[in-house]
Amino acid sequence: MADNGEDIPLHQACKGESILNTNRQIKTSEDATTSCKNTNVALKIAARDPEGDLSLYQPRPPTQPRWPKTSKKGSVERTVRTRRLRNSQESLSDPTGSSTDSLKEDLTVPTPGEQFLIGAGPIKNELETHERSLSAFMTGSQVFRTRDNSLSDYERGRHSQQSSPKDHRVKSSKLRLSPLQPTGPLPALEMSFESANLRAANRIDRDCLDYALLANKKGKLHRNLSDSRLLGNMGSDSASVSSMKSTYSVLSPIKPKDVRNRSFLEGSLLGTGALLGAEELDRYFPDRSVGVYVATWNMQGEKELPTNLDDLLLPADCEVAQDFYIIGVQEGCPDRREWEIRLQETLGPHYILLYGASHGVLYLTVFVRRDFIWFCSEAEHATVTTRIISQIKTKGALGIAFTFFGTSFLFITSHFTSGDAKVYERILDYNKIVEALNLPKGLPDANPFHSRPSDVTTRFDQIFWFGDFNFRLSKARVDVDAIISGIMGEDMGPLFEHDQLSNVMKDGSIFEGFQEAPIHFLPTYKFDIGCDIYDSTSKQRTPSYTDRILFKSRYVEDIKVIKYTSCSNIKTSDHRPVIGVFQVKIKPGRDDIPLCAGKFDRGLYLEGIRRRITRELKMREAMKNQSSSTICTVS
């Protein structure tokens, strides 16, 4: 290198070895002097900082360099380093280069030791001296202390690895700019780490957010599609956690060992690893409870169904949809298939018909949320006729039984003998049903040690009995009208003092072990069709609570009442439908039961969805025609 700092051309650097050896000592001395001058200038600049203490690091002139041994390898090394220094200087002088790239990659500041390497080969003693001085200078200076603190641990590790004398012989140290500091406080991070892509891939339909809403109320995350053990230590949403568990879907991955050890038709008899076991139950139901929606309605045999059944199955005041929908009908419409299609159309694609049965004009249908059909057993039904002539099937009972995980369910809809004074006949109807209803058939008895052959309700865990029981108010019509007109709010206590069903249940004559939620609605029988006026005919029937929903559980407090009311918007019959919403505890089971294996009425499902789509298209077309037919006049 010349005195003025210009580069030596490559072809001049590679001239004859004799010329290079003759001038090497002089150039080495000159380069050493230049290095000391550069070091003194840097120390003077740093001395301007009052906080920097440089009294211990005064520069000293280098000692006389030793004559190095020349070799072919050293010549090649000098040639490579000369080319590297030239490229570095060209990148700094290039006005078109990127400032960021040049500062990070191309900006190379030769240290004093490196100048000796380029000019006259490696000199060990001088390198160590100047490196210690420069290292102490950089450590003591406030500028370098701040810059070093701004670097990451990874960059400091790299700097410490390059600071050894041996590494300086091969690599040159690179100065990096400190990262930009924010001018103001950073915005607070949200607890949800769900990206836009995950949010689009794992979007849940609006009408399927029932568990998420319930979980938010209780301060827990929804774990329907993810492992609860992962969610326990995470501060994110379930969709993100589930996406991390599997590459292809949000479902939990299945190990090959689990596939080998169990069959999805019979499965494992062990408690762990079973399809209906505790692990699978906790994954889908962390609280081990399901929502059950029960509706009962005496349709009075009307052929014309309501135009809209949303008020019956999806009332506006219900926050979430339930897991099971059980609908019992007495004196049903002549076309049972049409009735079930209408139910499917109303519930939509998220629910499927698990089982449907009929007994004359008694209809009973069970819809289950589509995701949970794999955990249901095969359903069974049985019927009982309470008429003297068994061919007349207008009075009696119809029951459907199935098992969900390890909990057995029994749903019974019935129609008892009518008449104001026929209380004893209705008690006989009840006794005949509990003795003659032949359930379960293929399903195992939930508790064979405590079940009784004379009572079907003792063979199941959760029992719901609903229908038109025909129990009346033992009071004259005039007195009942006076009580109804004087009722303030939802207190129906004055009416229940005369309720026949409440009185016989207190005596223990009927519905042993059953309960009923408090009633806060008006009597559901008997109305004039199409209006809210009680019977105005010459018979003047007394308003009564004939339509009821009762429940019974093997374990105390396993059934919690969420809602119990009547549907006053459906007026096509002389009865008002009664609906009940319940939260039912469930328990894990064993895979020793005949599973449903995803079986459902596919034809009914497709027809209901087709009608639903057709109805929506017609509504959109009507709205479009209405908007296009608007006439604007200019006065």
Automatic annotation (TrEMBL):
Chief location of this protein within or outside the cell: other
EC number: 3.1.3.36, 3.1.3.86
Keyword Hydrolase: yes
InterPro entries referenced in this protein's UniProt entry, alphabetically: Endo/exonu/phosph_ase_sf (IPR036691), INPP5E (IPR042478), IPPc (IPR000300)
Domain Inositol polyphosphate-related phosphatase: 288-590
UniProt feature, compositional bias: Polar residues: 88-101
Assigned keywords, A-Z: Cell projection, Hydrolase, Lipid metabolism
Subcellular location: Cell projection, Cilium; Golgi apparatus, Golgi stack membrane
Enzyme kind, highest EC tier: hydrolase
Membrane topology of this protein: Peripheral membrane protein
Region Disordered: start-end pairs: 52-118, 148-186
Single GO cellular component term: axoneme
Domain of life: Eukaryota
GO terms assigned for molecular function: inositol-polyphosphate 5-phosphatase activity; phosphatidylinositol-3,4,5-trisphosphate 5-phosphatase activity; phosphatidylinositol-4,5-bisphosphate 5-phosphatase activity
Catalytic reaction(s) noted: a 1,2-diacyl-sn-glycero-3-phospho-(1D-myo-inositol-3,5-bisphosphate) + H2O = a 1,2-diacyl-sn-glycero-3-phospho-(1D-myo-inositol-3-phosphate) + phosphate; a 1,2-diacyl-sn-glycero-3-phospho-(1D-myo-inositol-4,5-bisphosphate) + H2O = a 1,2-diacyl-sn-glycero-3-phospho-(1D-myo-inositol 4-phosphate) + phosphate; a 1,2-diacyl-sn-glycero-3-phospho-(1D-myo-inositol-3,4,5-trisphosphate) + H2O = a 1,2-diacyl-sn-glycero-3-phospho-(1D-myo-inositol-3,4-bisphosphate) + phosphate
Gene Ontology BP terms: phosphatidylinositol dephosphorylation
Comp. bias (Basic and acidic residues): 148-158
Complex formation: Interacts (when prenylated) with PDE6D; this is important for normal location in cilia.
This protein's name: Phosphatidylinositol polyphosphate 5-phosphatase type IV
Species of the source: Takifugu bimaculatus
